[in-house]
Design a protein that fits this description.
The complex is a heterodimer of chains A (112) and B (120). With 112 residues, chain A is mostly beta strands. Chain A is built from no helices and eleven strands. Chain A has strands at residues 3-5, 10-14, 19-21, 24-26, 32-38, 45-49, 60-61, 72-74, 83-90, 100-102, 106-111. Chain A is elongated, with a radius of gyration of 14 Å. The chains are: A mainly beta (112), B mainly beta (120). The A-B interface holds A 32, 34, 36, 43-46, 49, 51, 86, 90-92, 94, 97-105 and B 32, 34, 36, 42-44, 46, 49, 51, 57, 93, 95, 97, 103, 106-114.
Chain lengths: 112, 120
C-alpha cells in the first residue's frame, strides 16, 4: 500500500532556528517523493522533489530508503516560510498510472 | 509554464442539483489528472485519477455515480457532483501531470487553485 505519514500537525519555531519537517512513507518499489507547500490563500505548489537533489528557498530533503523517510530541512527559518507543507509520493511503475498521494500536512509557524 | 486553471473558484448550489467543475492545463498537455477533496485544515484526499480518453479510476469509498469525471481531451477534465447534498460541501482541487515530463523525467503534478463548493 502507498502511504505517507507526517507525524506533526504543527511545528512552531523562532526565526533563525533550524527546521525539520518529518515525512515517512511506505511503498513497495522505488517511489518518487515530493514536498509541496501551500502559502496562505494560495494554491499548492511544488517545493522540491527528491530526484532533483536541489535546494529551494534554503530547503533540502534527502531520501533515506533505509528509514523510508524524506524529511524536509532548513538551517535557518524565515518568517516567510510560514505555510502548510505536504509530503507527497508517486509510484514510478512504467506503463502504469501512478497515483500522487499526500501526507496530512504540517503547518510551519515561524515566530519573529 | 505549467499552469492549471480551475473553474469556477467557488460555487453555491441548492441541494439536489448538479455542479460541474472544470480543470484545464493551459500551456501543456496532461495525460493524467487527479481530483482531490480537502476538508478544512486537513490534507488532500485523492478521489480519482483520470487518463485522457479512458474511464477514471476511483479511490475506495468514492462513489463514481456521485462524482462523474470526464477527461475528454489532453487539456480538460471535468468533475460533476451529481445530486449534491450539504455533506458534499468541500474544497475540490485538481492537478495535472505534464505529458512530456511524466514517467522518466518526473511524476510531479501541477495544481489548480481549487473550487469551493457550498451546497445549501
Amino acid at each position: 500500500a502507498q502511504r505517507v505519514t507526517q507525524p506533526e500537525k504543527l511545528l512552531s519555531v523562532f526565526k533563525g532556528a533550524p527546521v525539520e519537517l518529518k515525512c515517512n512513507y511506505s511503498y513497495s518499489g522505488s517511489p518518487e517523493l515530493f514536498w509541496y507547500v501551500q502559502y496562505s490563500r494560495q494554491r499548492l505548489q511544488l517545493l522540491l522533489r527528491h530526484i532533483s537533489r536541489e535546494s529551494i528557498k534554503g530547503f533540502t530533503a534527502d531520501l533515506n530508503k533505509g528509514e523510508t523517510s524524506f524529511h524536509l530541512k532548513k538551517p535557518f527559518a524565515q518568517e516567510e516560510d510560514s505555510a502548510m507543507y505536504y509530503c507527497a509520493l508517486s509510484g514510478t511503475r512504467r506503463g502504469a498510472t501512478n497515483k500522487l498521494i499526500f501526507g496530512t500536512g504540517t503547518l510551519l509557524a515561524v515566530q519573529p | 509554464g505549467a499552469v492549471v486553471s480551475q473553474h469556477p473558484s467557488w460555487v453555491i448550489c441548492k441541494s439536489g442539483t448538479s455542479v460541474k467543475i472544470e480543470c484545464r492545463s493551459l500551456d501543456f498537455q496532461a495525460t493524467t489528472m487527479f481530483w482531490y477533496r480537502q476538508f478544512p485544515k486537513q490534507s488532500l484526499m485523492l478521489m480519482a485519477t483520470s487518463n485522457e480518453g479512458s474511464k477514471a479510476t476511483y479511490e475506495q469509498g468514492v462513489e463514481k455515480d456521485k462524482f462523474l469525471i470526464n477527461h475528454a481531451s489532453l487539456t480538460l477534465s471535468t468533475l460533476t457532483v451529481t445530486s449534491a447534498h450539504p455533506e458534499d460541501s468541500s474544497f475540490y482541487i485538481c492537478s495535472a501531470r505534464d505529458r512530456l515530463r511524466q514517467g522518466a523525467k518526473s511524476n510531479e503534478a501541477f495544481f489548480g487553485q481549487g473550487t469551493r463548493l457550498t451546497v445549501v
